[in-house]
Amino acid sequence: MQKLNRFVLQIPLWLYFIVSIYPLFWMISYSLKNNEEIFVTNPFGLPTHFRFENYVTAWSQFNIPRYFLNSFIVSTISTAVIIILALMFAFAVARMVWRFRGAMRTYMIVGMFMPLQVIMVPLAILVRDFHLTNTYGALIIPYVAIGLPFSTMVFYGYMKSIPREVEEAACMDGANIFRLFIQVIVPMVMPAIATVAIFQYLNNWNEFTLAYILITDEMMKTLPLGLLFFQGTYSTDWGGMGAVMTMASLPMVILYLFFSEQVERAMTVGSAVKG
Amino acid sequence: MNKYLGNKLAITLFLLPALLVYSVILIYPVLQTGFRSFYDWDGLSEATFTGLANYKELFADPLLTTSLRNGLIFAAVLAFFQIGLGTILALVCADERIRGRKLLKTAYFIPVVLSVTVVCQLWIAVYDPTNGLINRLFDILHIPYQQNWLTSPTHSIIAIAFVNAWQFMGYQFALLYAGVKSIPEQYFEAATIDGCSKWQAHRHVTLPLMRETYKFCFTIAITSGLGAFVQMLIMTSGGPGTSNYTLTYMIYRYAFMESEYGYACAVSVLLVAISLLATVIINKVFDRKEV
Amino acid sequence: MKFPKSYTYGLAVMMLTTGLLTACGANDSNSSNGGNGSTETAGNSADGTETVKLKVYAQHFDDDTSKPFDYAVEELKKVMPNVEIELDPAVMDGYQKLKTYAATGNMPDIYFTDWSTLQTFAKSKNVEVLDDYEVTNSFKANMTSGTESRLVAPDGHVYAFPDTGIEFQLLYYNKSIFEKVGIATPIKTVDELAAAATKLKEAGYVPMSIFAKEKWIPRAFYAGFVTREDSNGFGTLDDANVKELPQAFITAAEQVKKLQEAGLFDVNATNTNYDQASALFYQEKAAMFVNGQWEIYSSQEKLGDKVDWMYWPAKDEATYEASKLFINGAGSPQGYAVSPSSKNKEIAVQVASILAQKSAEYRYSQLGSPIVASKTDKPIAGSVPAMMDRLAKEVLPNAQAYAGALNNTKISTSLEDNTQSLLINNFTVEQFVSELNRVLKKEHP
């Protein structure tokens, strides 16, 4: 009886499961259709005729491997830098003792609320003045700055919940503050690091607006900019866009599947350390 | 101990890199925006100082009322749906006895991985009044509730907010799940041994311990609701008319369509101020509960 | 537009010298741009003449935009072999990227843009005023009749060389559906159109598919009715003395509302994009379609003889007959402009003019479009669609008036917002009028 009960209770979980993975299926079928099927005849099902030519067109329109490589480099470096800087900053604000840390925390939040649309022009001028135009730095540095508020906030939250005794013990052991940070605190917030890493990687990978405005060199363009090749004056090749989006998203899905395993492990380790 | 954690050199070293990048790249343009909000400026030509004129005009602008109302609705939908559902799913997935929880956990995050464009296109199709899934479903179930989901000037904002809420529920879910996981098992076990039911234990032990996580989740949900933009741009282009405008949409319109950069800056300042206010309120609410 | 050979040679020599001079004399205001400056004067080519590299920012992403441009570049090589074009392809982003270029002092030598951007650039000195250039005079002399407003701005200056003529919208309809349902053509009055809408709807068709998610299209649809009442069209609203919405505009709004209530549009009209709307028309699920004259090509291709266009109806037959040759399109400047910071400004102006004329030549000779800004002596290659032929014979030579341009962007965007709203239920003509009156009062104090 209890078994049946639990089974019934789990039905909503599996319904939501379907609602969550359907878009993946939809995106892939979308990328194999033409406009007519997408909009009128068959918006939701499998394509009646698999139009692999959408992928062929995408492949011939622009240098996919190059765009892919650029996206990879930009996302990886930005994410790594964001995590290191945010961890350090959050540690100083959440765990160390000094006067203006509250103000500093607020200061770090302000930038998160600023819409990209309005800082884009001053940002473009900065990028020019730093001689970063058409380099990876033109994207990496803004991505790092934009990623910092969110990441520090997450790390701050986790670090706040670490008990004081941890530091006391480290102090007794005679560990200096840097060792405390690297060997004790960082391992304890592993779950948060894994979560933030996924979030930031996805953000940077999918970012379109800044990449569009700041990059003009064909050799420096990132994957989302491939979408531009399918827009027409009047008509848009939606299937082709679907192909680009699928090619951009599938690696992320696979990476996530692999990574979520790591996250889970990191979490178990994290709570083991804490306990 | 305080001396140990008050090491000035260490503090400086920890803060400096992040502070430098952040200040130069983000805060400097923010300050410029604040400065420009007092000017009549098209973004390119010579600017004329006009004092508070932009702000006076802003508070008389009927678009502001629409935008604020939509921002609040958007924020409410995000907070309610994402955090509500996110909490339930996080607690369920943390429960070792649920079969397939790993699979579920991974699936719930999938929409986040996809790009906003894909998800918006999907929902445009779902909301279509004649071919769309929702109206067809109502039809099959004989529910006479056919709606023009995206063309209603009053309700479409809710439909759009729901798309955002649904797509990024996985975000909040992941944060909450990590929060649940970081609570030492013993706390929860102790409570269940004391005779609490599973849900009681969560209510009295797990959730209060996650205060920081919740503070953060609410801040994210509410401020991203207030500043929402892309979904409206893709799904309805802010229409019909201007009924789907938000503050960011206003900024986009004035800065790029009407070349009123100074005015757009004033709207940005207002957006930042409102978001900060929301953050302060959320912090106050959660800190009071500490008592 | 063919240059005599000797003239071509002289031109090349002349430009070469001016090119050298300007290259030497140009002050290096863009030096802080690092490697991304706008112009480079590259080394010598094999025959000893100097190559001039020009950066051109122009739309180049599909057949409609890339073919005329590529043709123009090929033709340019014949006339000015020393010029090398470096294309920076633009997409439709409301000229956001171009404005960023202007803000960062990184302007391309030549760029293609519209009137509202040109206005901003004129104020901020990011566009070269072309009034006193020799080429401007020869360009003007070679224009097709009635298109001067594409070149000369309302302020009397020339900022850009246009390629297309004055474009306007047409009401397309499917003749065979009209016959099947029993609708008499031509439709002359709004009442007839409303009755047709009801009939078509009863017969299971979408009476008119309209991609009103793009706000300019409901605005253009509305403009058609305004033009029946006032030949100056939206241009009337540019007059600073107009502080309240004139009667012609109220009548037109009432007509659009009446048609909406008669079921002319799909319920999802304001959220329909071009691809959805055109698919409905081409699959013969919709009986009418509204778009610019450029749609003639694909509609003829997809529907053959079944499709034709009609004039916008009016309140009664007399008005219809009197006003059907008032064209709802307005000529405002647009085209290839030159940046004042270009190091080879003189050459860039020449090139801009040639790009515009040659791309017009392509549109005329290859596509058979009479809607071009400059004349060409190249014959039309291939057959011209019947609808285009009708347009060229029936309308263009007999056009009685073109609408005036509306330069005020605030009034213009307000028209877009509110005409889109007219297409949905629960938005009344009163709301429309009061919204526009509010904007007019603010803009014309």
From TrEMBL, chain A:
The keyword Transport applies. Residues 68-259 form the ABC transmembrane type-1 domain. It is a multi-pass membrane protein. SUPFAM superfamilies: MetI-like. Keywords: Cell membrane, Membrane, Transmembrane, Transmembrane helix, Transport. GO terms for cellular component: plasma membrane. Signal peptide: none annotated. The chain crosses the membrane at residues 7-28, 72-94, 106-127, 139-159, 180-202, 238-259. Coiled coil: none annotated. Its main location: membrane. It comes from the Bacteria. It holds the Pfam family BPD_transp_1. One of its GO terms (biological process) is transmembrane transport. It is found in: Cell membrane. The keyword Cell membrane applies. Belongs to the binding-protein-dependent transport system permease family. This is Raffinose/stachyose/melibiose transport system permease protein. The lineage of its organism: Bacteria, Bacillati, Bacillota, Bacilli, Bacillales.
Automatic annotation (TrEMBL), chain B:
It comes from Paenibacillus phyllosphaerae. Keywords: Cell membrane, Membrane, Transmembrane, Transmembrane helix, Transport. Residues 68-282 form the ABC transmembrane type-1 domain. One of its GO terms (biological process) is transmembrane transport. PROSITE patterns: ABC_TM1 (PS50928). Pfam families: BPD_transp_1. The chain crosses the membrane at residues 9-31, 72-94, 106-126, 157-178, 216-241, 261-282. The keyword Membrane applies. It is found in: Cell membrane. It comes from the Bacteria. CDD domains: TM_PBP2 (cd06261). This is Raffinose/stachyose/melibiose transport system permease protein. Belongs to the binding-protein-dependent transport system permease family. Its main location: membrane.
From TrEMBL, chain C:
It holds the Pfam family SBP_bac_1. Residues 1-25 form the signal peptide. It comes from the Bacteria. The keyword Isomerase does not apply. InterPro entries: Bact_solute-bd_prot1, SBP. Transmembrane segments: none annotated. Keywords: Signal. The keyword Signal applies. This is Raffinose/stachyose/melibiose transport system substrate-binding protein. It comes from Paenibacillus phyllosphaerae.
